[in-house]
Specification:
- The chain is α/β, with parallel strands linked by helices.
- It has three domains: 13-38 and 671-798, Beta Barrel (Barwin-like endoglucanases); 106-209 and 438-568 and 575-633, Rossmann fold (3-Layer(aba) Sandwich), CATH 3.40.50; 212-431, Dimethylsulfoxide Reductase, domain 2 (3-Layer(aba) Sandwich).
- It is 36% helix and 16% strand.
- It contains 33 helices and 33 strands.
- The strands form ten sheets. A six-stranded mixed sheet has the order 6-5-18-17-16-7, sandwiched between helices.
- Helix 16 packs antiparallel against helix 19 (364-371), helix 16 packs across helix 20 (375-385) and helix 16 runs parallel beside helix 22 (405-418).
- The relative contact order is 0.17.
- InterPro entries: Asp_de-COase-like_dom_sf, MopB_CT_YdeP, MoPterin_dinucl-bd_dom, Mopterin_OxRdtase, Mopterin_OxRdtse_a_bac, Prok_molybdopt-oxidoreductase, YdeP_MopB.
- Residues 671-776 form the Molybdopterin dinucleotide-binding domain.
- This is FdhF/YdeP family oxidoreductase.
- Keywords: 4Fe-4S, Iron, Iron-sulfur, Metal-binding, Molybdenum, Oxidoreductase.
Amino acid sequence: MHAHIPAPEVAGAKYLNPVLAQPPEALTGLKLEAQQRVAAGVTAVIKSMQFSWAEGGVGRGSRALLGLNQKNGFDCSSCAWPDPDEHRSVAEFCENGAKATASDADDKAAGPEFFAKHSLAELSRMTDRDQNNAGRLTHPMVKRPNDNHYSPISWPDAFNIIAKELNDCENPDEAVFYTSGKVPNEPAFLFQLFVRQFGTNNLPDCSNMCHESSGSALSPTLGLGKGSVTLNDLEEAEVILIIGQNPGTNHPRMLSALQKAKRNGAKIISVNPLVEAGLVAFKNPQDFMNPLRALGALLGDGTQLTDVYLQVRVDGDMALLRGIMKHLFEAEDLNPGQVVDHAFVAEFTTGFESFEQNIRNTSWEDIETESGVSRAELLEAANLLAHKQKIVTCWAMGVTQQRKGVETIQEIVNLQLMKGAIGKPGAGTCPVRGHSNVQGDRTMGIWERVSPKFRDALGKEFNFSPPTEDGYDVVEAIKAMRLGKTKVYFGLGGNLLAAGPDTEVIAEAMRRQKLTVYVGTKLNRGHLVTGETSLLLPCFTHVDIDMQKSGHQMTSCENSMGVVSQNKGILVPLAGEMMSEVAIISGMAIATLGDKTNIADWVAMTENYDVIRDHISRVIPGFEEFNRKLREPGGFYLPNGPRERKFTTENGKANFSTTTLDKHTLEEGQLVMMTVRSHDQFNTTIYEYNDRYRGIKGERRVLFMNEKDMADRGLKAKDLIDITSHFKGEERRVEKFVAVPYDIPTGNVCAYFPEANPLIPIGSVAKISNTPTSKYVVVTVVPTAVNNEVRIKAREAMMAE
């Protein structure tokens, strides 16, 4: 859908709607501290315990942590980093996982009394942290037309509302079904089954906003849209290249693997516009339990991780990779046959000559200008790679959310292929996924597109004809909703309002729906911006015991490296009327589809999740004998062609890519902004207002700026600023941010999401993948007007009247 969505009113939106779509502007008290150079350590242990015990109590919180990521326990609902195949420690979790689990194990309830006390407008004026900390959702709730409160509703009545609104659609494509990456395999499979039996492929999910660029790059080049390495490969690598990823905050358990790799002699090259603590050094909390290492871990500087740190400009990674490969080709000229793996290239690949010419023709001037990294620095990195073949490249959203994210990942593949660094121990590609089952959801068929093979297998298994036309991805769904082309939005977890681009466009899109349905565990801002009627349906978390007719149920998740393992809750759910995601989906399916589906099968799948897995085993390759393999300790690996040098592309080869290097074109005074998480945040869930590795305490509305860029604009530390984004002649402005001097390349700035998401235009997307460009937003920054505080107070007073 190429329809233009005009820029919304952003700064003034708080005066136009009583329910705030953006976090409130009230500042919470910024304190600047020294930027840290070591991740984890004893502080991470203390923070984990404090948060866990504060949320769930000492007993409940401790029990949850001891079952986290264990072979007979439950899967972390935070990131998708893999667990060790063999030995697992008693504390097989990180600070991030401890916070997510503690939040899930919360013993406070946000039930009917809570919603009777607070209107939607009042709740929207709470910070995102306070919304999350209000407690677990315990009862199904409804907001009826013209009401400003959620009130209780029975499950049958809720299902009947969903059924009526869906069946009133003129065609199935008037409904959008969004999925969070936190949803396990079994409910994800049922969800896509229901949606396709209903008659649409409108299945946007969080993959569209994170690693869609990875799949778009890897599938045509290697034949599989997933990474090729295992955890053992990472630990055996000779060189690890980490691009656009901050493991210390986003995937802390990865640091243990990097530490093992370093102790095995690996070299690490880090590429990031910010110098992140988790890429510099690591103090392993597990060492504090080892008498031989405890003192060194406490008093020492930790394990130094990065050997070469390349502080690239935002969106400059393609140029940087070309620079490294240009050096490698020059080294090959001097040492024929010793740098490029010609035997691998000849046997397994196509397109090498065009790729090589493209790299050699790229000028050093363009490489240095676009990357912001000198030729000498790039040579230092290339020298570490030149005579090595056990190379692993890791990347995350710092790459995927660029304008040229897909082609940048193709250059990563080019580097791996020219070195023959794939399909062998210690080598391969490693896109590091975010949410716990975001990769598994795609495997289960959560995708707005569907392969003919999957479609045929699904139709045969359930005796129906799945729709063949592609549905809406996230960006196209938001546009369709905003343009009034849809009537129903159903969100299975997540917080699209806070995760997506152009916050006020999403808000208006939601308000135009006849029905919005939100399945969730805790309150978030997305639940408050609603359609004419809205349902808020409480579900279990990974940590909750899920009892159905056949007994204690388990689900499964697929991690970043293609391992499927079981998830079995260990805590009794809070008192209330929560249901499992499987039961919610089945109830909706039965009410909506009626005699168009096999109701007995939906009942059977709800009573015993083994029945779901039997269906999956006959539909999805790699899941044969699913129930048996899932019960093996640690789970099982899915098939991975590139891991075995089997490239299932159209030509049966691994394909080199010939990409195009775009140049920055900024007007005077413009900067390039990227958005990131804070340390006390996972995805859109805010646990606290701090970001201790970056020296931020007590505030989220900050903009990290190079000191020279600040001086050029007459700014000093803690000055209030307004930020305006610029895209195709349109502007979006947010007010009342705080300028923070930081070690970031000139011309680049950085802010947290979701606070900065209103600046990201819905039309600014990566080529091919259609992923919003959260890592490339052109902005200008000015001091907040002197009278701005007075103006804000006057408008707030007017609104109060």
